[in-house]
Every structure is written in structure tokens, then in C-alpha cells.
């Protein structure tokens, strides 16, 4: 059994974000070359076993925080001041108890989680 490291990239989607993942050697955000169209990425690990030539992969675990490629952290007050047609976003923030959101470089709004970082 071998522990493998992966990076999962997030792309804007129509209803939900799209994502792709690839194996990496190290969980170091400074070594990631962010592909075109990506607004964020995160790391995770999984156990991999080769059994009679068959590759068996465990469930993803040890998820990192999100690393947003550019973007801006916004509070409710920021959203009220700076975002036009903000009622749906403010309602989502209130109902979901989000104190902050991250505005991505593609003008999406994602919930800010403790540990999330903006890079680039």
C-alpha cells in the first residue's frame, strides 16, 4: 500500500464547478502550475494498492484548504457595497451562516472556509 498525493483543480461550470485531478509528488502550493481556466485547487491523499496488476484506489482523505488563484475575500458589508444585484448572495450568506465569501477571478462567489488562501 502506497500513499499518493493529488491536486484537484476547479473550473467554472454552468450549475456547479467542474474539476479534474492529477497525481503529484509534493503537496506544495508554490510548486503548482495552475492550468488555464482554473480558479482554485486543493490537495488530497489516497492509498493505492497494486494487486495482481489491478490498481485499487482508496477514498480521498487528508483534504487541504482551498487555494484560490487570484480573487478577493469579501464580508457581508463588502458584498452590500460592491456587488450589484446582491440579494441572492446575501440571502445565501445569511441562510448558510457564511461570514465571508471569496470572489473568484471569474466573478463567482464561493464560501470562505478557515484556512483558504488567495495566491497569485
Structure description:
By secondary structure, this protein is mainly beta. The chain has 2 domains: 2-68; 71-119, no CATH class. It has 2 helices and 9 strands; from the N terminus they run ββββββααβββ. The chain has helices at residues 76-82, 87-95; strands at residues 2-11, 18-24, 40-51, 54-57, 67-69, 72-75, 100-103, 109-111, 117-119. Strands 1, 2, 3, 4, 5 and 9 form a 6-stranded mixed β-sheet that branches. A hairpin with a 2-residue loop joins strand 3 and strand 4.
Q: Tell me about the biggest sheet?
A: 6 strands, mixed
Number of strands: 9
| Helix percent band | 10-25%
Mean of residue pLDDT values: 95
The CA-CA distance between the termini, in Å, is 35 Å
SSE ordering: EEEEEEHHEEE
- Rounded to the nearest angstrom, the radius of gyration is 17 Å
Give the amount of beta strand, in percent.
35-45%
What structural class is derived from the secondary structure elements? mainly beta
Parts with pLDDT < 50 across at least 5 consecutive residues: none
How many domains? The number is 2
What is the approximate shape?
Answer: elongated
What count of helical segments does DSSP give? 2
Amino acid at each position: 500500500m502506497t500513499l499518493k498525493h493529488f491536486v484537484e483543480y476547479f473550473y467554472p461550470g454552468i450549475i456547479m464547478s467542474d474539476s479534474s485531478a492529477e497525481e503529484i509528488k509534493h503537496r506544495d502550493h508554490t510548486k503548482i502550475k495552475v492550468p488555464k481556466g482554473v480558479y482554485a485547487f486543493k490537495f488530497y491523499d489516497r492509498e493505492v494498492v497494486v494487486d495482481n496488476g489491478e490498481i485499487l484506489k482508496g477514498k480521498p482523505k487528508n483534504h487541504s484548504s482551498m487555494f484560490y488563484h487570484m480573487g478577493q475575500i469579501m464580508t457581508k458589508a463588502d458584498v452590500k457595497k460592491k456587488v450589484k444585484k446582491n440579494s441572492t448572495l446575501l440571502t445565501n450568506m445569511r441562510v448558510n451562516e457564511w461570514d465571508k465569501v471569496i470572489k473568484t477571478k471569474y466573478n463567482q462567489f464561493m464560501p470562505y472556509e478557515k484556512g483558504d488562501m488567495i495566491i497569485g
